[in-house]
């Protein structure tokens, strides 16, 4: 197995696990263990960002995304292109919202240190959208990888 496929499998695995880890982090809110919730989400976010950077660097080193999927019979199809673009757009939007949620929540948490507060409803809504986005990323990443590398 070459390094590129290994990295893709690792990032895919992380993408599939991420929404479940995020939901696990949410479970600490009901127990009022807010610091644990915060730590898990920050850790998960930064691990996912690091994994994406490693993947992106490896894709560039390997000759770009086109060279990686050139063996796939689906590469030139409209369906694959649409799936790939939809995956990328969904992932970028989810990660931007996730980063904003963490940044704003951290800012509010440092001010108050108590919850719930006025930002809690907004935070909860943003969190739900992020978790839905993480599931979307996991599903689309699975199909992109399946069509690009395993079929």
UniProtKB/TrEMBL annotation:
It comes from the Bacteria. The keyword Membrane applies. Pfam families: DUF420. Keywords: Membrane, Transmembrane, Transmembrane helix. The chain crosses the membrane at residues 6-31, 43-62, 82-105, 126-150. This is DUF420 domain-containing protein. It comes from Brumimicrobium salinarum.
């Amino acid at each position: 197995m070459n390094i590129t496929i290994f990295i893709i499998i690792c990032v895919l695995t992380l993408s599939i696990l991420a929404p479940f880890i995020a939901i696990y982090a949410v479970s600490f809110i009901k127990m009022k263990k807010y610091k644990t919730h915060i730590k898990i989400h920050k850790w998960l976010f930064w691990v996912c960002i690091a994994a994406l950077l490693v993947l992106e660097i490896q894709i560039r080193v390997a000759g770009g995304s086109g060279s990686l999927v050139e063996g796939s019979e689906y590469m030139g199809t409209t369906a694959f292109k649409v799936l790939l673009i939809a995956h990328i757009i969904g992932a970028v939007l989810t990660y931007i919202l996730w980063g904003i949620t963490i940044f704003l929540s951290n800012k509010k948490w440092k001010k108050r240190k108590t919850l719930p507060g006025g930002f809690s409803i907004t935070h909860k809504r943003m969190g739900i959208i992020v978790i839905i986005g993480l599931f979307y990323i996991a599903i689309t990443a699975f199909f992109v990888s399946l069509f690009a590398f395993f079929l």
